Amino acid sequence: MMDLLTRFVVAVPIKEETKEVIAKIILERWFLLFGPPEGFLSGRGTSFLSNVLQDICRKMGIRRILTSAFHPQTNGAVEKFNIALASYRYNSAVHSATKCSPFRAMFGVQAFDFGVDYNLRFRQESDPTREDLAEHVKELHEERTKHSWKAKETEKKCYDKAVSEVEFKPGDRVNVFYPPDVLGVGRKLSTPWLGPYRVQRRLGNVRYLLEGEQDPAKIARVHVNRLRAWDERFEETGDPRDGVFPDSRRLLRLSRGI
């Protein structure tokens, strides 16, 4: 909850997001603490549209204001705070890959945790010297590197199990995937698989060098995930040059049979 004039924020952790819980927190932690505001702006979540909260605002003479659907800029100040809060929570939480919080790995000390009652006046351990802190950070980085490599190996094994290896030979005819959204054409009006293109050669483990079948001068370097064996059902031929996509107007005409 935020006061838009002063940008003062009250953040309250909750275990469940029900209309009763939300209404109780807003009433006790804001309205009864600071007094009823002239207006109350909120999103369109079911918890904020409940009759309970509407009754509270009506009885206290508070004007209810709702954000526009799919337009978070209406409540931009709160959205910015949410980004900052989410970033802090991410940096202070233990990462599954490194077994350490990003904040501790970066600065050598654990970030202040909102859920821990810290005694700021008396510390059980003395403040580390600059040399001790530098050595501690070095050890943390070495340990994090080991954990990161182990996590990458685990991810690779899971990926390899789910994806079957596909290989193409020079001269093979293939389709290339172009997302309809990128082409500027609605999903219902176009096919995302364009071609045919011919494989010139393989580049490393996951990329292929292609040429346009009708115009060999048009060259593209394409990831294998965007390729599949040529299917004659798709006759459209796009421009395979890097960064250049088929003309959306021509695709629209083709999809309509014009």
Automatic annotation (TrEMBL):
A biological-process GO annotation: DNA integration
GO MF term (any one): nucleic acid binding
Entry-linked Gene3D superfamilies: Ribonuclease H-like superfamily/Ribonuclease H
Domain annotation Integrase catalytic: ranges: 1-140
Bilayer-crossing regions: none
InterPro entries: Integrase_cat-core, Retrovirus_Pol_polyprotein, RNaseH-like_sf, RNaseH_sf
SUPFAM superfamilies: Ribonuclease H-like
PANTHER family: INTEGRASE CATALYTIC DOMAIN-CONTAINING PROTEIN, PROTEIN CBG26694
Protein known as: Integrase catalytic domain-containing protein
